[in-house]
Specification:
The complex is a heterodimer.
Chain A lengths: L18 H16 L3 H5 L2 E10 L14 E5 L1 H11 L12 E13 L6 E12 L2 E16 L2 E11 L15
Parallel strand pairs in A: 1-6
Antiparallel strand pairs in A: 1-2, 3-4, 4-5, 5-6
Chain B lengths: L8 E3 L3 E4 L4 E5 L6 H12 L4 E5 L8 E7 L2 E7 L5 E5 L14 E3 L2 E3 L6 E3 L30 E5 L2 E5 L7 H5 L2 H9 L6 E3 L4 E5 L3 H8 L5 H4 L1 H11 L3 H11 L1 E6 L2 E6 L15 H19 L1 H9 L1 E6 L3 E5 L3 E10 L2 E11 L4 H14 L7 H14 L8 E3 L15 H14 L4
Antiparallel strand pairs in B: 1-2, 2-3, 3-21, 4-12, 5-6, 5-8, 6-7, 9-10, 11-12, 13-20, 14-20, 15-16, 16-17, 17-18, 18-19, 19-20
Helix pairs in contact in B: 8-9
Chain lengths: 174, 431
């Protein structure tokens, strides 16, 4: 297997990152998750960042204070999600599942003061207990540049599926 | 309650109880057999009151939603006058699904296949040239949308029953009514389902989720990583809290197969137990909620509503857990080893944005497919189901915990036995 390190994104030289910078970043992020390098993955987030997975079929602008999600992590809960997944007591992911993430259709949707809004589509395969589940949809990222490096301030995973049947759970990070 | 009338011994094919010996066993065949599932559909799901929806999901006249209940596609709607109905979502003409959207507001429904139309009170309303059908076609109601035989509600919880001769919902709910009252009394403004449904499936027999939903025994073992998180947020010792919990927690048979555990857990409750993480403002808001509650229902009842956690199962497959948030969860077997689950969050109408956010955060930390606990339950249930492949050589589950106790606790298994006795009465005794 290739290691994530080989794909590590270069520091961003300009104030306005190009699509290729985001593609490098997103492929790197996917590889870190595939390889269960969760601390390094968490380090891709800026302090105060959020990670959300609304219920299947929700609209892109759905609000986690008004609707039930699957995941609505603030920075503290996200840190715990990572810590938890590293323990054998996270039974759903012990022994760990195997997974592969495909990221495509990367687009810069908006350049703004709050940082660039970047969209992409994804397919994630998760295999455990002789069963393979597929998750697919699109993701919306808000980025900032901290000390020359891209950092996520907001990651929202939109599942373009009817529901979580048969997947049943989102115990991996999407 | 029901416990008083149950025999001391049961020697059924699937459920065996020897009360003097303190032993209760359930056959693993009950979780794996196609024949058992067929019998369950006939004797349990087609004769019990099944959760259809909450009144808040249909706020206006002409609102409708579509939902699969007890294995059948249904329309749950309100007509022009605001009356609630439950129709089988199949065209009386040739069977196609008539309402194909999840929800909406409509004066009537039109089948996309041949265009048969119906008013939202179910009446046939298709315009056809004279001579095509006999005069008076459908005057006998035979081409109206078919109604589910029974629909009744209690405190805005709507149920259907496929058995026209079933006892009324009120009587059926028995001791569960009191618990629904406690939930409904959270707010002076009524309760509502929050938008966003968690629909998922579990590759396990449906009765495993019945047991799991009010299983206090597994909490610390299965959900250690959740409690570690909780304690880091609350800043107290989990062991002290759990010790305090056990003193007040009880397993309670509510009659007719309904049961619950009631106790006090360490997490915060949006209705009345603030935790430090919610800050001064959060605490002030919770204090105000408790003051309103106490003025409205009195101190004793307010204390029970605000400070006690309840996991309740309504037979056969409705769960209402009033814990770190309120979840309403129902499920139905698609196969012996596969169930579909639908979960909602229930909350007071008109609570502040901050309170709603605390509630939803609390919900998601524990509950649902992305929570810090439910995925591990799913793993446990699916793991048990795989284990049952060895039933020929390891045939029995043990559900004896606390059977000899005068008052079983929340980490005993009395609530599961209440379910299994009702299950066995229908499946083995044909009651």
């Amino acid at each position: 297997m290739s290691t994530a390190t080989q794909f590590a994104p270069n520091p961003v030289a300009t104030a306005q990152p190009a699509r290729a910078d985001y593609e490098d970043f997103l492929y790197h992020e996917a590889a870190l998750l595939d390889e269960w390098r969760l601390d390094e993955w968490f380090a891709l987030f800026a302090e105060g960042a959020i990670y959300e997975v609304p219920t299947a079929g929700a609209k892109d602008d759905v609000d986690s204070a008004e609707a039930l999600f699957y995941v609505a992590d603030d920075y503290g809960r996200l840190r715990h999600r990572v810590e938890r997944l590293k323990k054998s007591g996270a039974h759903s992911e012990f022994p760990r599942s195997d997974s592969a993430r495909l990221v495509s259709n990367v687009r810069i949707l908006e350049r703004g003061e709050a940082g660039d809004l970047v969209g992409c589509t994804f397919v994630t395969y998760r295999s455990k207990n002789d069963l393979t589940d597929v998750f697919f949809g699109h993701m919306l990222y808000r980025f900032t540049v901290i000390e020359g490096a891209l950092r996520i301030t907001d990651k929202r995973v939109m599942l373009d599926m009817n529901n979580l049947r048969p997947q049943g759970r989102i115990s991996i990070i999407l | 309650m029901a416990t008083a009338f149950t025999p001391l011994r049961r020697t059924g094919r699937w459920v065996q109880e020897d009360r003097p010996a303190g032993l209760f066993k359930v056959s693993r065949e009950a979780f794996t057999s196609d024949d058992v599932l067929a019998l369950e559909r006939e004797r349990i799901f087609d004769k019990s009151w099944l959760f259809l929806g909450h009144g808040s999901e249909l706020k206006q006249p002409n609102d409708y939603l579509t939902r699969r209940v007890g294995g059948r596609e249904l329309i749950f709607n309100r007509d022009r006058k605001g009356e609630f109905h439950a129709f089988l979502n199949t065209c009386p003409h040739r069977g196609a699904i008539v309402a194909r959207e999840k929800c909406g507001n409509a004066l009537g429904f039109k089948c996309f296949y041949h265009g048969w139309s119906f008013n939202n009170n179910g009446k046939y309303a298709t315009r056809t040239p004279p001579g095509v059908y006999p005069e008076g076609f459908g005057n006998d109601g035979s081409v109206d949308l078919a109604r589910v035989p029974r629909i009744e509600s209690y405190r805005d919880f709507f149920f259907v029953n496929y058995d026209p001769n079933a006892i009324g919902l009120h009587e059926y709910l028995a001791g569960a009514r009191e618990v629904l009252d406690l939930v409904a009394d959270h707010s002076p403004n009524g309760m509502e389902i929050i938008g966003g449904t968690q629909e998922y499936s579990i590759r396990a027999n449906w009765k495993l989720l019945v047991e799991n939903s009010f299983d206090g025994y597994h909490a610390m073992e299965t959900h250690g990583t959740y409690f570690e998180y909780l304690m880091s947020v609350i800043g107290t010792s989990v062991n002290d809290d759990i010790a305090g919990m056990e003193d007040v927690s009880r397993g309670i048979d509510l009659g007719n197969g309904h049961a619950m555990i009631e106790g006090r857990a360490p997490w915060g409750r949006p209705i009345g137990r603030a935790i430090p993480a919610w800050g001064e403002d959060g605490k002030a808001e919770i204090d105000a909620i408790v003051t309103e509650l106490t003025d409205r229902v009195g101190e004793t009842r307010a204390h029970r509503i605000a400070n006690r956690d309840r996991n309740m199962g309504i037979f056969p497959s409705l769960v209402i857990n009033d814990i770190m948030a309120i979840t309403v969860r129902t499920f139905y077997p698609e196969a012996p080893d596969l169930m579909n689950v639908s979960s909602w969050a229930l909350a007071p109408v008109g609570e502040s944005r901050e309170a709603r956010k605390r509630r939803l955060d609390n919900f998601l930390e524990f509950l649902g497919p992305g929570g810090f606990a439910t995925p591990d339950d799913v793993e446990a249930l699916e793991s048990a189901q795989r284990g049952y492949a060895a039933a020929k050589f390891a045939p029995w589950n043990d559900i004896s915990r606390g059977l000899l106790k005068e008052q079983p606790g929340g980490n005993d298994e009395a609530q599961m036995r209440a379910f299994w006795r009702a299950w066995a009465a229908r499946m083995e005794d044909g009651k």
